[in-house]
Amino acid sequence: MIIAIIILVLVGLWGVTTYNGFVSLIERLKNSKSQIAVQMESRWDALTNLISATEKYSDYEKETLEEVIKNRKQVTINSSLDEIQKAEDQFASAFGKIVALAEAYPDLKASEVYKKTMDSVNKYEDNVRYARMTYNDMATKYNRARRQVPKNIIASIMGLEEENYFVLSENKSQMPSWK
Question: For 66-99, what is each residue's pLDDT tens digit?
Fold first, then answer.
């Protein structure tokens, strides 16, 4: 009887510990996704500043880009990976227009404001890339824990689903260089 109680207590402790481990992994995944959203928002802010720097060069482009920014997809902690990818594609499109505008106006490309703002966009682009890598690392840890025996029993009880990964999109591999 005492052995059965000890076994039940140990199984209960294991279940609680495993459950708490999954809760921790889920929170880390949410935090990783939140970091992506924060960095993407900062990158959009930098692009907005870049658009302001182009004002005197092309009213049409400025209006077009401001419309894109106004209608951009906001990324939140609850956004799906597809929604985040759509926001990435929208940013790449707007950014491509800015790069093309700079190519058409060499004095814009040479201006200090343009250079500093492009450096800022570049910094946030790197931050987004790093945040996505961190998210993928957390998704790997979560998915591995979710599938491992005997943790998969608790994962099944909790109704945990496999977490998707960010992948390189076609638009990202063709993103123009601003240097």
Answer: 777 777 778 888 888 888 888 888 888 888 888 8
The helix or strand, by DSSP H or E, that contains position 11, with its residue range, turns out to be: helix 2-53
Nearest residue to 138 (alpha-carbon basis) of 119, 157, 166, 117: 166
Own/partner long-range contacts of 171-178 (Cβ < 8 Å, ≥24 apart) = 171/88, 171/89, 171/92, 171/93, 172/88, 172/92, 175/92, 175/95, 175/96, 176/95, 176/96, 176/99, 176/100, 177/99, 178/95, 178/99, 178/102, 178/118, 178/121, 178/122
Phi, psi of 149 (to 5 degrees): -85, 135
Q: Annotate 14-64 with DSSP letters as a single string.
A: HHHHHHHHHHHHHHHHHHHHHHHHHHHHHHHHHHHHHHHHTTTT-HHHHHH
- Cα gap 87→160, rounded to integer Å: 26
Confidence class for position 62, pLDDT limits 50, 70, 90: low
Q: Which helix (H) or strand (E) holds 91?
A: helix 81-104
User: Average pLDDT, stretch 32-38?
Assistant: 92
